[in-house]
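Hallway conversation turned thread

IA: we were arguing at lunch whether anyone had actually written out MTH1187 family thiamine-binding protein end to end. Turns out nobody had. So, for the record, here is the sequence (98 residues) and right after it the structure tokens. Reply here if something looks off.
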Amino acid sequence: MIVAFSVTPLGVGEDVGEYVADAVRVVRASGLPHRTDAMFTSLEGEWEECMDVVRRAVAAVEARAPRVSLVLKADIRPGVTDGLTSKVETVDRHLSES
């Protein structure tokens, strides 16, 4: 499964990068395949391990912020691995054909 999620601290002002970094540290320490961009972090693994990482990432931000917003989208597709890479490669292949 692939989970794309965003953890946003609320009530801490406009500059939230240091809080988001706390969440990303949790993701990186998980050892699961992941990518972080300007809006979301995508994570790949089994349901239990992905949800545990999301829960701990939220807790890391919640420890320093009075309120936390979580946006989560999941692609639950049993038997598929390396989706983080293969999905992008498929789109790139189609783009190069046109």
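OS: looked through it. The longest helix spans residues 47-62.
IA: good, adding that to the notes. The chain has three helices and four strands.
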